[in-house]
Amino acid sequence: MTKLSFLDLVNVAEGESPADAIRRVGSLAAHAEALGYHRYWIAEHHGMAGVAAAATSLIIAEAGRTTSRMRIGSGGIMLPNHSPLLIAEQFGTLDALFPGRVDLGLGRAPGSDGKVARALRRDFMREAEEFPRNVIELRAHFTGEPDLGLLAVPGRGAAVEMWILGSSLFGAQLAAALGMPYAFASHFAPDLLDEALMIYRRDFKPSAQLRAPYAAAAMTAVAADTAAEAEYIASSTMQNFVALRTGNPGKLPPPVENYVQSLPPALSGMLGHVLQCSTIGTQDDVARGLRNFIARTQVDEVIVHSAAFDPAARMRSIELIARAFAGLEPEG
Question: Which pTM was predicted?
Fold first, then answer.
């Protein structure tokens, strides 16, 4: 049966500090666990005023601190920014603290711009080309195969579930070749979703980690007690998308009435395209959106991103999404 999981970008709203956003993670993760979400992922970003998830493994630890059953992890760690050994040690530490429920989703994108890459002292282009080799090296730090001639402590023997993340066909091909679970970032890059899933399933090679393909896909979801309220809450995310695509990224802005109607046609068309994989409305509306998305993709797991300027509205949205999903289960 399809599972429901949650992606947290640790959004910083206008008028607050990154510390405010980080301090919400624990209560948000506990709330998601109580509602039955399967896993809670944090996404690495750098140099963005509106995203406070740079020290990803530390924030994952905060989600682990307030939960006991739900899987926690990265959606994802941008491996070109790091050495495989360092990530093995960090996630080996997380597994020691929260045994048997840590995920390590790996992406090839920078999660930053060129200035940040230079500040991280990384040659991003070279590291991106080395991504497949580095994934294999990282996996070997956990399993010991092949023998790398050094020991990740902690890390060796850790029960960390590794994933490949992507928004293009490259990640699908790599996940299939390595026999790893695969998650597609369709919440912001929907164009290649169907083709990527087809390639992943068609070319999948069983591994010691995974015997059959396991695919997840992300979508934006915002739920409220009325459709108008949901559209109003979602306008904060919509403004964020427009700001990012027009080169003016910033903190999560307060919602505005009739935001889409206020946009010029070019921007409203762009926004509609980006939000192809989204469901916004009442609990029943969101249930229909989830059902259609699962029917289309046949994914094993849906990962929802649900942001709101008002923390209380976000908690309510997460609750209504979980209820909407629970209502799908009898239909399987």
Answer: 0.94
pLDDT in tens, 276-321: 999 999 999 999 999 999 999 999 999 999 999 999 999 999 999 9
219 has which bridge partners?
Answer: 304
Amino acid at 219: M
Average pLDDT on 223-229 reads: 98
Q: Taking Cα atoms as reference points, which of 237, 267, 273 lies closest to residue 253?
A: 237
- Cα-based distances in Å from 251 to 7, 47, 84: 18, 12, 31
Whose CA is closest to 276, among 140, 145, 185?
A: 185
Burial class for 135, CB neighbours closer than 10 Å (0-12, 13-18, 19+): buried
Q: Which two tokens stand for residue 52?
A: 């406070």
Q: What percent of the chain has pLDDT over 70?
A: 96
Q: Tell me the HSE value of 229 on the side-chain side, using a 13 A CA sphere.
A: 12
CA geometry: angle at 210 spanning 209 and 211, to 5°? 130
The H-or-E segment that residue 170 falls in is helix 169-178
Query: Running DSSP on this structure, what letter comes out for residue 330?
Result: G
Instruction: Tell whether omega for the bond before 76 is within 30 degrees of 0, i.e. cis.
Output: yes
Q: Quote the CA–CA distance of 18 and 268 in Å, as a whole number.
A: 29
Per the DSSP assignment, residues forming a β-bridge with 4 are 302
CATH of the structural domain 3-331, one choice from 3.40.50.620, 3.20.20.30, 1.20.1250.20, 3.40.50.12780: 3.20.20.30
The SS3 assignment for 129 reads helix
Backbone angles phi, psi at 205, to 5 degrees: -115, 120
The whole-number average pLDDT for the span 214-236 is 98
Residue reference for tokens 């249930």: 287
Q: Which residue has the tokens 């026999």?
A: 179
Going by DSSP bridges, is the β-strand pair 3-8/161-166 parallel, antiparallel, or unpaired?
unpaired
For the cut 60, the answer to whether the pLDDT of residue 101 exceeds it is yes
